[in-house]
Amino acid sequence: MSYSVTEPSSRQKWIAGALVILYALITMAPLVWIMMTSFKTPPDSISYPPKVFYQPSLEGYVNLFTTRTRVSPERLAELPPPTNFAEEIVRNRDMVIAGPSKFGGRFLNSVIIGFGSTFLSIFLGTLAAYAFSRFKIPLADDLLFFILSTRMMPPIAVAIPIFLMYRKLGLTDTHLGMILLYTAVNISLAVWLLKGFIDEIPREYEEAALIDGYTRFQAFYKVVLPQAATGIASTAIFCLIFAWNEYAFAVLLTSGTAQTAPPFIPTIIGVGGLDWPAIAAGATLFLLPVMIFTVMLRKHLLRGITFGAVRK
Amino acid sequence: MAEVTLQNLSKSFGKESAVIDMNMTIDHGSFVVLLGPTGAGKTTTLRLISGLEKMDTGTISIDGRVVNNEIPAQRDVAMVFQQYSLYPHLSVRDNLAFPLRSPILKTAQADIDKKVNEVAEILQISAKLDNRATELSGGEMQRVSIGRALVRDPAIYLMDEPLSSLDARLRADLRIELKRTHSDLGATLLYVTHDQIEAMTMATHVGVLQEGRLVQFGSPRDIYESPNSIYVASRLGLPRINILPADLFPTTRGAAHNIGLRPEHFVYGEGETASVKRVEHLGDQTRLHLDLSGHAITALSPAGDPHAAGSTVKIQPVNPLYFDKSGDRIVGRSI
């Protein structure tokens, strides 16, 4: 019988593993259901009892990316044979493709606005956090509290002032306006999180770099940034998730050119009945960028790479 | 190499003075060791010279050039920190190459490789060059830190207790290595230590700091043999100098308040009778812990000393140092 504090017994590992798997199953279930639905046909998607095994179809994705019009069977018969799979799927429903839907553009807006505001939040946040961490700033604590206080209410509480302000400034329904808005919301989070990470990086590294012939900015760039990578990555994920998923401001401030995907996806419901596969396809595609981003940065999310190089 | 001059240098942190009105000249090619207890201002002095701290008043010049307003990179100094501060995201090789790649030096890759391999050889870390800095043991990390200074040819090397975290054998090896670097390259070094052997064996000059002031500056022998105060006398010597009331021995009575007797400053078989409390046979010498009228004395005697604990011995001081009431040394006639 081992009483080691650091090494769990195989029984403990087994229980811990089982709990993690159970938790994963519970949290993953809705996502899996959405992805499954996106590959169903509309009848399959609303069948009762729900179908777990079904013939996969791309109809949801075709419907997501196209607008379609219903035509009479006589007219349909006159048409030349379908040239691609999308055409074929649509004609099986007695319809023809009228043109592309707005989803592609809305999705691109989400990418521009989400990643743009994340980049800006991290860029400004890192510089501010470094300054707060390393320099003697008068009233630093008050400034930090002030920065944090912007998060003490739900952002939507200031929706009306912002709406009026944006209308005056001509920022309504622009990419720049949405990027600035999400950056303003995220920057307090970014400054606070990053300050914590940068505080943990010992000053000795920068001092060594200064002595080694680098300027302060070069030391920041060459020594602090690589070590803050972990913090920057996790902060970036938080910022991206907020900007990516934000719904209320997007509904209020965007309608056309800068509309993001979240307010657009529900509008699919209105087009010719409840097209659940198309909605699920939109949600699935919408999930992917954040998922890919997180997977890409997961290496940096694992802490502990800098542990032990400076004696404390 | 270069000459570094400190003139009226002062620095305080808030209300605490770290360095007070310091004047010191570190000559070309000298190896200056700073001694003093924690808080005496040793590290602050190094940081002021390196430019990591800005002085309140005074002047620092390197080779006659006033560097007060220069950033560390412009001053051309190398520094080894007490806490090994390797860049954890880089390999050992890149850590060593880091100073050579700086925008100031911009060394060619071939020269970097040559220099890095050379230094790695000296510090016995060649096998670890491609490890990450975080994969090294404490001793190896500190050797890389020293190596990061040695790859350069700076105006002055500043070292803040670089060997304190190493084991005895490695410390002895590196002591010789640093001494060799000093004599072969003609490098100028300013070195902070608590270790008496480091100070005595490596230094050409020793500066003793007391509460931010430089109280004595001279050769190691000077500092050891003619310290100008009890404070300085206590900085060097192991076992420490015995500070005793001047009237303890009839031969030392006079104006002095205290006498200082190093452990080797005794002859045996005549004079006052002391009782032997403890005897330590170190092999090459013997340490006697004595008690004379209630004063503890540590004395050295040759190997094979016949005294045993509980016996008595007659002792007589030779060449005592005399100190006045405030602890300052009295020399010559005034005794």
Give the structure's gist in a few sentences:
The complex is a heterodimer of chains A (312) and B (335). Chain A is mainly alpha-helical and 312 residues long.
Pick out its properties:
heterodimer, A: 312 residues, mainly alpha, MetI-like fold, 14 helices, disordered C terminus, B: 335 residues, alpha+beta, OB fold (Dihydrolipoamide Acetyltransferase, E2P), 4-stranded antiparallel β-sheet, 9 helices, 18 strands, 25% helix
Overall number of structural domains of chain A: 2
Low-confidence stretches of chain A: 304-312
CATH superfamily of the largest domain in chain A: MetI-like
Which spans of chain B have pLDDT < 50 for at least 5 consecutive residues? none
Domains of chain B, number = 2
Subunit arrangement of the protein: heterodimer
Describe the sheet with the most strands of chain A: 2 strands, antiparallel
Distance between the termini of chain B: 44 Å
Q: Roughly how much helix do the residues of chain B carry, as a percent range?
A: 10-25%
Strand order of the largest sheet of chain A: 1-2
Largest interface, with counts of residues having CB < 8 Å to the other chain, equals:
A-B, 24 and 29 residues
Class derived from helix and strand content of chain A: mainly alpha
